[in-house]
Design the sequence.
């Protein structure tokens, strides 16, 4: 292993110079093994803060208290540390119908690309049904040669496939349409999105078995919840990459995410990923359900509305630093966040620290997968001045995440769904972080 | 014995290669991972009829029946007004009426009268899950 001095010498002085305004540094600095921000700070010639000496607390010997006795016994199902009790979903439900509403994923408390199952966002229209998997069945009928039913036990015997992908509610980030920037922690504003590994049976296998009519162009998917939620999905997507998901992050899907069976449509808005899937009806037209006409459509300034806007457009946001957190004085920070697109892979995330005047490319954390969270990171030296942080995602189709004013010009402010504009955080010289339209 | 051991390893290697090409043996017949074991049970007409809740804009799927505005108002007052408000506005639940300013105004109300394109959708949604 090379020593730290050699590694630092392998960094050219240019790499430690900002690559964009506001103190953004070269993303490749992360790849220099052993580089510590503090050391880089000294090399870059800025005065490192002199740390007070760490001393032994009173009455403490060579061991911390939890080293002095045996630890707790085994557990059948592990739980997070009690010190992480604030890492929770935030519930916003209807006061008169507690099962109608959402719970937000605490994006600001998480890192990496996988959402823990207990923190995966929820959107329920009438609560979480308590389904007995021995009784639950999937009916496939309509324009098929052989209408069939499948028990969960039967589906468990089918060939399965896994993929890691996000599900985002079509209404995620809708406060972005508001006239004034909403002040909230990231997750409680943008947290109607989560990302899991999903495992299940390719839907095409089931549709082939039933003998899908070549004239069938839509599938009506229906849930076994208290509102029998239904939605129409084009057959093309169903035959392409749809999965009848049985597992989420390795364990059977949680009740609030569709136990025992969920229709997974990678990259498509959450409402089409029907939970508690009970029925698939092949037809030659959409059924025009409530959730594809009066909801999950976007009213435009002309008075017309967009309908069947299934694919979630490219989007990104910075999760750290972010509102609700505070800066701990000038110095080196790692800016991180995530980007995603329903159209395939994220190819680039740029970050600005000067409100969009200049941009630097962030490092994309591998693996970069289709229709999946892509974590990005970039080193930043904050001088303690007013700064405005932004991130901008580009996907493999060339689509670039728009600035808010561009999105609003195109769609007005009354569409409610599919808000994917660039998000801006203002850092005050005192270190407070707030959401701004910039 | 040595030869048998080598042969066994060759067999394992072949089995592994077959596995990586997504083929596996089932009763001696090779099938691909695109095919299932065919465990779907035929669904009876009766079951499909009972389960099929779909109602299309042309009326396909609607049950036989009739009603009047007067009867409808009574049902609304009993089952709906508590959440949606006595006039379909101002309750804890979705606004059903109003929207007089239209969809291009500064505050467009997306109500049944202004934003629901099909009457069948209203019937279908109420039948499916109302009241919550």
Sequence:
């Amino acid at each position: 292993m090379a020593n730290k001095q050699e590694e630092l010498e392998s960094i050219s002085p240019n790499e430690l110079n900002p690559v964009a305004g506001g103190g953004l540094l070269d993303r490749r600095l992360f790849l220099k093994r052993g580089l510590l921000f503090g050391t880089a700070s000294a090399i870059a010639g800025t005065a490192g803060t002199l740390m007070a000496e760490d001393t032994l607390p009173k009455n403490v010997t060579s061991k911390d208290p939890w080293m002095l006795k045996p630890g707790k016994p085994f557990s059948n199902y592990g739980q997070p540390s009690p010190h992480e009790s604030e890492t929770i979903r935030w519930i916003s439900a209807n006061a008169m119908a507690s099962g109608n509403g959402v719970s937000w994923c605490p994006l600001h408390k998480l890192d990496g690309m996988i959402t823990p199952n207990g923190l995966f966002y929820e959107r329920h229209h009438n609560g979480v049904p308590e389904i007995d998997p021995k009784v639950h069945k999937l009916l496939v009928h309509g324009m098929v040669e052989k209408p069939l039913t499948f028990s969960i036990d039967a589906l468990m015997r089918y060939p399965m496939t896994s993929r890691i992908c996000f599900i985002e509610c079509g209404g995620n980030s809708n406060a972005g349409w508001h006239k004034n920037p909403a002040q909230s922690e990231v997750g409680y504003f943008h947290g109607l999105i989560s990302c899991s590994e999903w495992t299940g049976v390719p839907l095409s296998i089931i549709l082939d078995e039933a003998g899908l009519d070549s004239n069938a162009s839509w599938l009506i998917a229906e849930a076994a919840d208290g509102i029998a939620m239904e939605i129409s999905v084009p057959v093309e997507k169903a035959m392409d990459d749809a999965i009848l998901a049985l597992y989420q992050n390795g364990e059977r899907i949680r009740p609030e995410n569709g136990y025992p069976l969920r229709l997974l449509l990678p990259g498509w808005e959450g409402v089409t990923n029907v939970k508690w899937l009970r029925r698939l009806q092949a037809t030659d037209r959409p059924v025009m359900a409530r959730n594809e006409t009066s909801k999950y459509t976007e009213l435009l300034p002309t008075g017309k509305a967009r309908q069947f806007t299934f694919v979630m457009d490219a989007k990104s946001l910075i999760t750290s630093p972010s509102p609700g957190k505070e800066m701990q004085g000038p110095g080196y920070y790692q800016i991180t966040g995530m980007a995603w697109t329903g159209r395939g892979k994220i190819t680039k995330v740029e970050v600005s620290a000067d409100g969009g005047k200049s941009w630097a490319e962030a490092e994309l954390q591998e693996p970069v997968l289709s229709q999946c969270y892509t974590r990005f990171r970039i080193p930043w030296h904050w001088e303690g001045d007013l700064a405005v942080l932004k991130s901008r995602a580009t996907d493999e189709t060339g689509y670039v995440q728009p600035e808010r004013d561009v999105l609003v010009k195109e769609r007005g402010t009354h569409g409610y769904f599919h808000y994917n504009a660039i998000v801006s955080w203002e850092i005050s010289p005192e270190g407070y972080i707030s959401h701004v339209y910039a | 014995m040595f030869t048998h051991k080598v042969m066994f390893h060759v067999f394992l290697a072949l089995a592994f290669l077959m596995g990586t090409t997504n083929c596996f043996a089932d009763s001696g017949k090779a099938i691909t991972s695109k095919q299932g074991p065919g465990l779907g049970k035929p669904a009876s007409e009766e079951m499909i009829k009972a389960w099929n809740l779909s109602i299309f804009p042309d009326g396909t799927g609607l049950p036989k029946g009739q009603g009047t505005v007067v009867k409808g108002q009574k049902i609304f007052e009993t089952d709906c007004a508590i959440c949606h408000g006595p006039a379909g506005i101002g309750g804890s639940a979705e606004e059903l009426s109003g929207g007089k300013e239209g969809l291009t105004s500064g505050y467009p109300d997306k109500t049944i009268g202004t934003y629901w394109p099909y009457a069948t959708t209203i019937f279908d949604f109420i039948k499916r899950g109302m009241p919550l």
